[in-house]
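Workshop exercise sheet. Pairs work together: one partner reads the sequence aloud, the other fills in the structure field after running the prediction. Swap roles for the next sheet.
Pair: D.N. / O.F.
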Amino acid sequence: MTAVLTPYTDTPENRTRLLEFYRLVYSTAPWIWEEKRWEWQTFGNPRVTKGSNDIWILTDDNGELIGHNVFLHYPLRIGGKQYDGLCSANLVVKPGITGRGLGRMMIQKNEELGGVPFAIGMTDNSYSAFGKQGWYIVHHIRLYSQIVHPWPNLLYLKLSLWKAVLAWPFLFLGKTLSSFYAATVPKSFAGITTREIESFDPALDPLWNFFLGGYAFYFERTAEMLNYKFATRTDVRHSRMLFEKNGKVVGYGVCRISKNPVRKISMGRIVDMVLDPSLGDSFAVWVVGYMRRHLLAEGVDGLAGIASSDSMKRAYRRNGFWFSRVERSGIKETDFSMEELARQYADQWYMTLADADLDDYW
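Structure field:
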């Protein structure tokens, strides 16, 4: 079989074909092939030339669609320098034909398009493929979760009935203990006030990146990108919070509530936060607790968030996020060395769910 990798051209016929492919490979993730959301992801990014897209498709000898990859544009700051980042997302090959180097073709295309290629949340298969291409793999970032209602979470895991029944008491006990522990987090922080905002103010862009200046690598927060990601979507609901201390802005947080109609579970995510590091670990603990309570009030079945620094990991654990897993991520080094940056900076990579933000974290 000969595979050909070509850029996607948006026509009614091609769109129907592509969304049908999504339905095949993402059968349990209907949000991925919801058309309005797809249009937002594909054509809404302000860093993409209007009318164009960065979707690449693999076809076989018969012209059948057998693979897909999309490259999301992000403004990055690495070692104090600005870069154009290309995040590899939804790299997928049709079931039954993996292991033939098809994923490698798409990874190589990512490297050829310029900018800095990176990827978040690698699967076991893609992790191997990226590693063989010489990407720098990061293993210290973790996805944290907290169970609120055990039964929907057990159904999501597709356990047999008897296994679910046996597991339920353990999850219930864990949920109860973590809830009691999280309840001891203070509900107020000296001098801090919180207000919800409709959108992000460009005048605050320098402040967010000043707060993140201690990290070697991060997605550069700008009002343009933050509003695109958190104020223009209609398929999910975001809450945007601004934190102030004595009238001075000291951070923001974003929460999302979304539902998986196939798995019948609702998820509350702490999607993004940028905080004044001078306020210390206790402030991070309080912010995670504040957003946790905000999401719980919406009746979600579970909570999730990503942490990369030791400070943020402690903040999640202190709030009862006791279940976690490594969120392997990678980057193709260009004119910088991640190991060298790790020696120069106290923290290597600042990451939240906002870095990929494609609703694939359940």
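Discussion prompt: The two ends are 35 Å apart (CA to CA). What would you look at next?
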